[in-house]
What does this fold into?
Amino acid sequence: MSKKTNAAGYISAKESRRISKQNRKITGELEKRRERKNVPLADYTTQMRNPDNIVEFDDLHTYFFTDIGTVKAVDGVSFDIPRGKTVGVVGESGCGKSVTSLSLMQLVQRPQGQIISGSIRFSGDGGVLDIAQTPTEVMRKIRGREISMIFQEPMTSLNPVFRVGMQVDEVIALHNRAMSKDQVKQRTIEMLETVGIANSNGVYRMYPHELSGGMRQRVMIAMALALSPKLIIADEPTTALDVTIQAQILELLYSLKEKINSSIMLITHDLGVIAEMADFVVVMYSGRVVEKGTVREVFKNPSHPYTIGLLNSRPVVNQQVERLYSIPGKVPNPINMPNYCYFRDRCELSLPACAGLYPPEYRLSDTHVVNCYRCAHAVKEETPHD
Ligand SMILES: Nc1ncnc2c1ncn2[C@@H]1O[C@H](COP(=O)(O)OP(=O)(O)OP(=O)(O)O)[C@@H](O)[C@H]1O
Ligand SMILES: [Mg+2]
It folds into this structure.
């Protein structure tokens, strides 16, 4: 999209109006498609590439059409979540982690936020769906029951004017219409006990503000796991909590996941949490995946300079350092992204090849994939990026 900016970097009112008119046209068409009724099943069912996966993100593009231009929040993301495993997603603030997970739930802020292309294959009860094509009415039945989400700040996700128990009841009742009121309450109390709330009958009648942060997060977990979902998305589930409670909550999440045999997509800034909890890591930078692999591969042999930087900027116990490493520069503006490696200008290990186009995927092993010319000796993927 061409954009006229003045010296200060602002766009004129006229230009902004033109962009917003164009945006309305694009999003209007996409919205119409999403709200279609009685869509034939064949339009949104598909096949998994590998039946051992529960989710496959395949070249997902999610954009926000704003009045100052198009934000390519997720720009060609591909990775898998294997059944029963935990996949950690890391990256700096604003790199598209939350938008990736919100796309999977179809909760991207509409109408300006839209999945533009690519697919999100989800192996659910009703077969394999492509969530990028699934109509909203079908998606409503999947949210909460088959895929559920735990957010960063439980106070903003719980409704302050309703008792905690009622809120968990509501989730259970919504998806189990045959259950009586007493059965629903019984199940809620059971869930509160499972997440380690001792006085479950008392807590059932409390309001969110009467609970501590850790307790509120436990209630959120109870709510998210009440229907034994196949996939749990945890977006920074412990960032708002203190360190000791963090460990307890993560342990709880992990043990419950094992119990109900589900998978976790764990979004975090904390590499320590990934090392502890995850089986696979996906490193994101400016809307793209720059490196992915098993936790062992990525921690033992980090190969993208951004991953190396992230690992070096982490404090290590028993190691005296003068100053903790910090990656120079800042994340580029997501509007009008160039088509070269976005990390190039911050990279201390860049090569002459980096002056060229965005690097393709290089495969270091079956599971370890890196987008960086430093790995050009490895096998190049058949389908390069863009
Ligand atoms: N509703 C929106 N409208 C416009 N742009 C948005 C909107 N939501 C997110 N973005 C943009 O999308 C990009 C990715 O945001 P996202 O929330 O996914 O980042 P994140 O990786 O989750 O960061 P954090 O670690 O801070 O949570 C950012 O540049 C952000 O400004
Ligand atoms: Mg986020």
Q: What stands out?
A: Residues 13-34 form the longest helix (22 residues). The chain has a mean pLDDT of 87. The pocket of adenosine-5'-triphosphate (ligand 1) is lined by residues 64, 66, 71, 73, 91, 93-99, 109, 112-113, 334 (CB under 6 Å).
